[in-house]
Specification:
The complex is a heterodimer of chains A (269) and B (238).
Chain A lengths: L2 E6 L7 H14 L4 E5 L7 H4 L10 H5 L5 H4 L1 E2 L7 E4 L12 H14 L2 E5 L6 H8 L3 E6 L3 H16 L7 E7 L1 H5 L6 H8 L2 E7 L2 H8 L11 H13 L15 H14 L1
Parallel strand pairs in A: 1-5, 1-6, 2-4, 2-5, 6-7, 7-8
Antiparallel strand pairs in A: 3-4
Helix pairs in contact in A: 1-11, 5-6
Chain B lengths: L19 E6 L2 E6 L5 H18 L6 E6 L7 H13 L3 E7 L5 H11 L1 E5 L7 E4 L2 E5 L7 E4 L3 E7 L2 E4 L9 E6 L3 E4 L2 E4 L10 E7 L5 E5 L3 H4 L11
Parallel strand pairs in B: 2-3, 3-4, 5-7, 6-8, 7-9, 8-10, 9-11, 10-12
Antiparallel strand pairs in B: 1-2, 11-14, 12-13, 14-15
Helix pairs in contact in B: 1-2
Classes of the chains: A alpha/beta (269), B alpha/beta (238).
The complex binds adenosine-5'-triphosphate and magnesium ion.
């Protein structure tokens, strides 16, 4: 029986879909059987980032409404040998086409066949959010280091903590720009973790290569030489229960930040 | 007790048990009312006794009357009728009515109001934590989160959201926090927005209270010893 992990944020555009694609790919690289589920009905784009758009025939709503079996709707990622699959969202329906009960049933079914089911959640706290968390066992909250994203993350964490079947959520801070943090133009990791008081799963630097890779339909994690790639791989290993120290964002000049990050990680590992 | 003069005012010469005992003190008159007789008997005797008393002190100053009704429970109407009888007599004003008993409902309400409710949690954005009595929060109030208490609010972590103490009218209520960086403070009906510009210095171990100008002020926690000595409650009493 696998684990279902929802990737959520509250605020839009902070990197949920990017995180889902890269963590899923990283887990497959580590030999796990992974199924990605796009629940952003009406605004799907996980398939685009994964480079799988042109193979979609059926979607999540087709499955839920019984037009096809789950297996038939799953899109296989050819880069992996039978390890990575995607269940795309419908583009033509809207979020009310699916109920939380239907989602839970679907996720439970997928958990039979996969080690990890990663659920990409839409922004917001309405129907789409409720659908996405319905079948989850774990939650990852993605935020960026700005006040409004952290505020929304706090709101989402409050909601997630009320879900009895979901373990305490963990945090990924995305798009950190170290020069801005250094000049105090951005919240630092210390502040964010203190404010949200949940475990930090990892941090990802703001990196143009992430955007380029996504545009090419090749998640950055497939590039072994990029820092962001290493960060995603490390998060995947932490999901598997390994204790991996946090990466420094900028090699040498950022000793202070690194020390802080290590301190946080030390507390929790 | 010292300083008390016992005045026997009953001049009616009947051998029956007396339901009303009066004690004059330098602060006024204390009436001990029997709690075993019927309410109507009690009213009748009280009325008679006071009528006699009244003729004696026609032009005197106002006398405060304290009533002790023992183990008798008085409904609101019964209390009003007692007050009416006393008010009808010249010079007498009711200062207090004390009973040893209260209804279960009142007792529970009283308990709730005087309780310290301790909660271990982080009150996050969009959440409201509302308690009767004092709130002891072991955790933070994040921006966008709200805590409300009918009594005082003590926050062991950081207050970064909204806190409303004494929400049903208690202006003596205070708000204390280990880190005081609220977006808004409210005590009873007084509100105080955080200054638009706030320094990062010295927001530790602070308290907020309503001062003599009806303003909420924030100051060092230690001041409360003088400002609100009632906060010490080693032994709870009515
Ligand atoms: N670490 C990063 N560095 C640079 N750009 C990034 C990074 N992470 C995400 N982005 C970019 O940010 C944009 C938004 O990312 P993404 O679509 O993953 O966010 P989302 O949270 O899924 O958005 P939505 O709420 O609309 O679903 C994309 O253009 C993506 O390429
Ligand atoms: Mg998305």
């Amino acid at each position: 029986m696998g684990e279902a992990i929802v990737i959520t944020s509250g605020k839009g555009g902070v990197g949920k879909t990017t995180t889902t694609a890269n963590l899923g790919t990283a887990l497959a690289l580590l030999g796990k059987r992974v199924c990605l589920v796009d629940t952003d009905i009406g605004l799907r784009n996980l398939d685009v980032i994964m480079g799988l758009e042109n193979r979609i025939i059926y979607d999540l709503v087709d499955v839920v409404e019984g037009r096809c079996a789950v297996q038939k709707a799953l899109v296989k990622d050819k880069r992996f040998d039978d390890l990575l699959y995607l269940l795309p969202a419908a583009q033509t329906s809207d979020k009310s086409a699916v109920t939380p009960e239907q989602m839970k049933q679907l996720i439970d079914e997928l958990k039979q066949d996969y080690d990890y089911v990663l659920i990409d959640c839409p922004a917001g706290i309405e129907q789409g959010y409720k659908n996405a968390v319905a079948g989850a066992d774990q939650a990852i909250v993605v935020t960026t280091p700005d006040v409004s994203a952290v505020r929304d993350a706090d709101r989402i964490i409050g909601l997630l903590e009320k879900e009895e079947n979901i373990r305490p959520p963990r945090l990924i801070i995305n798009r950190i720009r170290s020069h801005m943090v250094k000049n105090h133009d951005m919240l630092d990791i210390d502040e964010i973790v203190m404010h949200l008081s949940i475990d930090l799963l990892g941090i990802i630097a703001d990196d143009d290569n992430v955007i380029k890779a996504s545009n090419n339909g090749e998640p950055i994690v497939l590039d072994p030489n990029s820092k962001a790639s290493l960060a995603y791989r490390n998060i995947a290993r932490r999901l598997l229960g390994e204790s991996v120290p946090l990466l420094s964002l900028e090699d040498e000049e950022n000793k202070g930040l690194l020390a802080k990050i290590k301190k946080f990680f030390g507390v929790r590992s | 007790m010292f300083g008390e003069i016992f005045v026997e005012v009953n001049v009616v010469n009947k051998p029956k048990k007396q339901y009303v005992a009066m004690k004059g003190t330098k602060d006024g008159l204390t009436l001990h009312l029997d709690d075993t007789c019927s309410y109507d008997e009690l009213l009748k005797e009280l009325d008679e006794k006071l009528a006699i008393n009244e003729t004696d002190e026609q032009d005197g100053p106002f006398i405060a009357v304290r009533l002790h009704v023992g183990n008798r429970y008085l409904t609101h109407e019964q209390e009003e009728r007692l007050r009416a009888i006393i008010r009808a007599k010249k010079n007498l004003v009711v200062d207090s009515i004390e009973s040893n008993v209260m209804t279960k409902q009142e007792a529970l309400e009283w308990k709730r109001k005087n309780e310290i409710v301790s909660v271990a949690k982080i009150v996050r954005s969009g959440q409201v934590l509302h308690v009767k009595g004092d709130l002891l929060l072991i955790g933070d109030v994040n921006p966008g989160g709200t805590v409300i208490a009918s009594g005082n609010i003590f926050i062991m972590g950081a207050l970064r959201g909204i806190a409303h103490a004494g929400y049903d009218g208690n202006r003596q209520a205070i708000i204390a926090a280990s880190i005081m960086k609220p977006t808004q403070l409210r005590i009873s009906d007084v509100m105080n927005r955080a200054p638009d510009y706030r320094t990062d210095e010295g927001n530790e171990m602070e308290c907020a209270y309503i001062d003599e100008n009806d303003q909420i002020v924030v100051d060092r926690l230690q001041l409360l010893t003088h400002l609100r000595p009632n906060l010490t409650r080693l032994e709870r009493s009515f």
